[in-house]
Design brief:
Layout: E1 39-40, E2 51-52, E3 55-58, E4 66-67, E5 77-79, E6 82-83, H1 107-111, E7 112-115, H2 119-128, E8 137-139, H3 150-153, H4 155-166, E9 170-174, H5 183-190, E10 195-200, H6 206-212, H7 219-231, E11 236-243, H8 252-262, E12 267-271, H9 278-289, H10 294-304, H11 323-338, H12 358-364
Helix pairs in contact: 2-4, 4-5, 7-8, 8-11
Amino acid sequence: MTDNYQPDPMRHRIRGRGAGENPAGRFEKLTPKIDEDAWIDPEDYLCEGKQIQTQVFRDATRSVITSNDSPDVGMESSVNPYRGCEHGCIYCFARPGHEYLGMSAGIDFETKIFAKPEAPALLAKEFSAKSYVPRTIMFSGNTDCYQPLERHMKITRRCMDVCADFRNPVVIVTKNQLVTRDIDIFKRMAEYHCIGIKLSITSLDGSLARVMEPRASQPKLRLRAVEALASAGIPVGIMIGPVLPGLTDHEIPAILEAAANAGAQDAHYTMLRLPYGVKDLFQTWLDDHFPDKKDKILHRLREIRGGKLNNAEFGERMRGQGFFAEQVAQMFAMHIKKFGLNKKRMALTTDYFNRDAYNAQMSLF
């Protein structure tokens, strides 16, 4: 795969999905082909093209807390109740993770989801271990814990119940209004300063969001989620994740103003990064939706990424470098100050961690 990648002219336009193709993973010698028998055509779906059903697989992992030593993330531990994500964000840096499963970072990532139904019980077991050191855990460090599948499976909700009982601090990042369903649990957590939530808002343009993040909540619904959480006394902010140079960077002031008006307490951003095959999928997506802006967007991205479409170096990958990266940083800093989103909020704490909650939790499972 190279920066000069050329999309397959015979690829399908797949409605309701972000990627338009299903290329082979970087570890595979064979190219996966979309199963025509999986196509469905519901009458109430208004978009053109075809749709593929989501398939759910059981992930039988025996541990759920993942550690990382990345200085860019800001959290040393994370929990991801799902692998793969129905939201289908075309730019998602987690897409290459499916290649380790022998699948594609394209359509497979959006339609073949691995769920961890035993995650709540495993989480309770890990919290209760004498060796466990209480620490803040990020939910959605990789894929969204409130993606559409969560509405029915409720794995994340049950994990939140565990975290609330143990009073282990949690930070959630999501693009889905579904997060408001669990306000009742978040209120319990807020009493012990162990919950913080960030809604990821990349654009206020509903039409753009529909093709860029097809199954995530529309921007106006994410802002409503911010408002609902803030009204309930839940610490909430936003994440512009990511800023797409040449496509959405001009929206930063408007996004921050809307977030502040909705009750957000703070704001952060990351810059677009396109690891491995994501850069190829993204270029195909530009050909399909923004051919007139493609050259500008890729030029800006190369300026930010040292002449490449991705730079994985710590300290650079989240914000980029150079003139355009600095311009975005200055614009962001100016407007979070203008809209009061640069104030420090109360820090999460492990002071109230309750290891004795294990017996009560296991009785539920």
